[in-house]
Amino acid sequence: MEDAHMLFYRNVIGFDDMNRVVSDKRRNDGNVVLWNVMIDGYVRLGDLKAARKLFDKMHHRSVISWNAMISGYAQNGLFTEAIEMFHEMQMEDVSSNYVTLVSVLPAISRLGALELGKWVHLYAEKIGIEIDNVLGSALIDMYSKCGSIEKAIQVFDRLPKKNVITWNAIIGGLAMHGRADDVFEYFSRMQRTGLVTPSDVTYIGILSACSHAGLVDQGRSFFNHMVNMVGLEPRIEHYGCMVDLLGRAGLLKEAEELILNMPIKSDDVIWKALLGACKIHKNIEIGRRAAEVLMDLAPNDSGSYVALSNMYASVGDWNSVAEVRLMMKDLDIRKDPGCSWIEIDGVINEFLVEDDSHPRAREIHLMLEEISHKLSLTRYRPITTQVLLNMDEKEKESALHYHSEKIAIAFGLISTNPHTPLRIVKNLRICEDCHASIKLISKVFERVITVRDRKRFHHFQDGSCSCMDYW
């Protein structure tokens, strides 16, 4: 069978002999266009290593060369690499263009690198790049996902023209921050313009906002309006929002029936939403059924096994926990580790659970001890029910002590001036103990702390959270 790379160049570039192409490149380093076409070809095939190898060999690079690598990394989930490439581009004194900024902003959004995002925004304004609907939407998304929803609103309000994509960006951003009333207001404004028709993405944002706020009746109403009045066909994401909304409100049977009666095939995401709700409400019966479906849909995904194990642990069924863990071991399925990021002075610092690899690990450990001591003075007791392992109370308290978001916060406290806001990004859903303790940390240390977990944003200030303890 012909190699995929050779097939690409035979069909797209028009060369039958790959070796001749490489030879031509070596003889003519000035032919940047040919190099760029080849890099783009490897990127489209998903072979980022081959693309980077060619890129590194180039003696002369154009902005197109850089853009191809940045967008390639970002589109393939290599967000750190995309940002590193963007930094390298600045060090080489290569002027970024419109495409560069649109390409790097999704990576910045994913990692929550707000300071870099602000720099990109200022750069665009400084050199006169037009902030149109596409770049504007990317900036709104960036500010929203980096925790600065007010800045996202500013960008939106300043756009000279707005289309459904920009409206969806601000509605989705507000939903992510749990601002349901604002979502409804912006949706009404969108309708009042008479110029923009809501899309299916619009309703994903609205239903997500209802889910985050526990607004079951409003969620049902918007879902029915979308289907019966607007005539949009629900996607799996809409059903997922409804299952999450119903499940977290305790309406587990209704949520399960909705999945079973959907006219489209269910996926692992929607069953995970139900399984997560079953853990919250300790419904073993429905949770077990959801887990069994998940294990068929995604047999190598650790999420379903971990969720099932945690559900058993939450009711103290350690024999069932052991069975699930043994099954994971037999199938060589490993749990995804908790991971958190914090940006300090433009540098993204990553921390895992019980991470002591950072150069300032000793200082971080001392700050964690200080946090623990100060919280104990408020008579705070760790919520050890969240440690779903069969160990004694002291061991459970120690395990909670080193969750990745707490390590990131400790690093933030030792790395910034008093009263400086801290922004954390986490890959998993925040646990109950971390949520409760961060509320107190925000009060004791007088800090505004923003945490973006896998589901939504939490804004902690003066001992309370924007989610109102519903997440």
UniProtKB/TrEMBL annotation:
Domain (DYW) ranges: 380-471
Record family assignment: Belongs to the PPR family. PCMP-H subfamily.
Residue ranges of PPR repeats: 31-61, 62-96, 163-197
Keyword Aminoacyl-tRNA synthetase tagged: no
GO terms, molecular function: mRNA binding; zinc ion binding
Keywords on record: Repeat
This protein's name: Pentatricopeptide repeat-containing protein family
PROSITE patterns, per database record: PPR (PS51375)
Gene Ontology BP terms: RNA modification
